[in-house]
């Protein structure tokens, strides 16, 4: 379900999703367990890669671990005239589930720093979410009874394709499988005042990391650092910026993070959010039961999550 919307400061056409290599993870009633697929050219269906080549892994994690051989099969499937499962017959999962790690970057948009009246960081601010927070592109966000201050944050997510440690910035893109849209749902009371002001608990409640709709491969995105990015709550634009506002770009982030930890295929890096979050509004605004949040990034698509 590729719903396209307008954002202010955008051109007079909706963001056009890339139609090159859009990998998805999906369920279908006639299939057992998750399968890996390709979004069809018009975005209205899914090509089952496991039907095209039964030797391919059935989860995106294992698919990425196979590296170039698996991607080569997917490229072949793109050019073949294959049956398409109608969108109404499949359930899209998050493109990545159960990653080794979800690494997040704080205050990584210059305009987001400005709205907080804080200086731009001299080095990346790193925190994490647990993998159990990940849900699909159209799944519900569950408000936890422990928090009254749940907020929105649209983010560009980088997905690692090749293992690496102490990766040089000049080599970093060779370690990237692709990009997807993330929603870094945040409980501000737990992030800013509880748990010794450590961010982890406020960021990692169940359902606090919707991802999707597809993993758009690195070579299918013209420039990940020049993409319009926006978030809407109940149809109202609350965040609208461009990834060119990122303080530390993908290459710098991978180089920085890989000093400390080994990056594995399927690892996800959330690269920060632009201005417009609820907590810095006057008065602050937080998500309520019944709200609908749309997070959208040019070329990547839109994820739509109902708050319950």
Automatic annotation (TrEMBL):
It holds the Pfam family FAA_hydrolase. Gene3D superfamilies: Fumarylacetoacetase-like, C-terminal domain (3.90.850.10). GO terms for molecular function: hydrolase activity; metal ion binding; oxaloacetate tautomerase activity. The keyword Hydrolase applies. Residues 101-308 form the Fumarylacetoacetase-like C-terminal domain. Keywords: Hydrolase, Metal-binding. The keyword RNA-binding does not apply. GO terms for biological process: oxaloacetate metabolic process. Transmembrane segments: none annotated. InterPro entries: FAH, Fumarylacetoacetase-like_C, Fumarylacetoacetase_C_sf. Belongs to the FAH family. This is Fumarylacetoacetate hydrolase domain-containing protein 2A isoform X2.
């Amino acid at each position: 379900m590729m719903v396209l919307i307008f954002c202010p400061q955008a051109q007079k056409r909706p963001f056009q999703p890339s139609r090159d290599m859009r990998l998805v993870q999906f369920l279908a009633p006639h299939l057992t367990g998750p399968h890996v697929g390709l979004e069809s050219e018009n975005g209205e269906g899914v090509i089952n890669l496991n039907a095209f080549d039964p030797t391919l892994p059935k989860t995106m994690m294992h698919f990425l671990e196979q590296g170039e051989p698996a991607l080569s099969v997917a490229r072949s499937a793109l050019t073949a005239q294959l049956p398409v499962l109608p969108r109404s017959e499949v359930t899209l999962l998050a493109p990545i589930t159960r990653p080794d790690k979800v690494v997040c970057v704080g205050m990584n948009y210059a305009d987001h720093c400005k709205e907080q009246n804080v200086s731009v960081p001299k080095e990346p601010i790193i925190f994490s979410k647990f993998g159990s927070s990940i849900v699909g592109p159209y799944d519900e966000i569950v408000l936890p009874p422990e928090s009254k201050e749940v907020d929105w944050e649209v983010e560009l997510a980088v997905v690692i394709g090749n293992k690496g440690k102490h990766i040089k910035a000049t080599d970093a893109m060779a370690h990237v499988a692709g990009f997807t849209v993330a929603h870094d749902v945040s409980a501000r009371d737990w992030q800013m005042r509880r748990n010794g002001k450590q961010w982890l608990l406020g960021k990692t409640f169940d359902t606090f990391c919707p991802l999707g709709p597809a993993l758009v491969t690195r070579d299918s995105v013209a420039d990940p650092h020049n993409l319009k990015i926006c978030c809407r709550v109940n149809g109202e634009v609350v965040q609208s910026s461009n990834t060119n506002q990122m303080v530390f770009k993908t290459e710098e982030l991978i180089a920085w993070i890989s000093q400390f930890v080994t990056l594995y295929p399927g690892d996800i890096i959330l690269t920060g959010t632009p201005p417009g979050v609820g907590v810095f509004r006057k008065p602050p605004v937080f998500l309520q039961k019944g709200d609908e949040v749309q997070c959208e990034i040019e070329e990547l698509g839109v994820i739509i999550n109902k708050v319950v």
